[in-house]
């Protein structure tokens, strides 16, 4: 499972960076969920693969740079360690993110994102 989980994490990140939403959708279970902390336009829980792709598209639309630091694996799951940055005239985003993915049958069943700067995220995603 470790090799599969690592490969899935690397492919997921590559698809995120290139905006390959079809590939991301193919990596998700139809009933998958994604939880993001904060109180802003992208925070909360979304349910369903299509809703997760819509959220990823919205996050990316803010011009983020998603730098992959590492793909971490457990016995059955994986996590992406990232440094996400973006800048607008009125706000800067500079945060470290752990995107923890619970896998089921080789696909992502749940994502929970952990952020280093939730107040900064709330300011940026308005």
UniProtKB/TrEMBL annotation:
<dbReference type="InterPro" id="IPR032710">
    <property type="entry name" value="NTF2-like_dom_sf"/>
</dbReference>
<feature type="domain" description="SnoaL-like">
    <location>
        <begin position="10"/>
        <end position="110"/>
    </location>
</feature>
<dbReference type="InterPro" id="IPR037401">
    <property type="entry name" value="SnoaL-like"/>
</dbReference>
<dbReference type="Pfam" id="PF12680">
    <property type="entry name" value="SnoaL_2"/>
</dbReference>
<protein>
    <submittedName>
        <fullName>Nuclear transport factor 2 family protein</fullName>
    </submittedName>
</protein>
């Amino acid at each position: 499972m470790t090799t599969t989980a690592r490969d899935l994490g690397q492919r997921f990140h590559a698809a995120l960076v290139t905006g390959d939403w079809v590939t991301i959708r193919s990596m998700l279970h139809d009933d998958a969920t994604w939880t993001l902390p904060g109180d802003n336009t992208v925070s909360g829980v979304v349910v369903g693969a299509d809703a997760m792709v819509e959220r990823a598209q919205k996050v990316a639309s803010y011009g983020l740079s998603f730098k992959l630091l590492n793909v971490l694996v457990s016995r059955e799951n994986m996590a992406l360690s990232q440094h996400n940055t973006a800048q607008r005239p009125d706000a800067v985003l500079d945060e470290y993110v752990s995107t923890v993915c619970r896998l089921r049958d080789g696909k992502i069943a749940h994502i929970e994102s952990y952020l280093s700067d939730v107040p900064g995220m709330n300011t940026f995603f308005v």
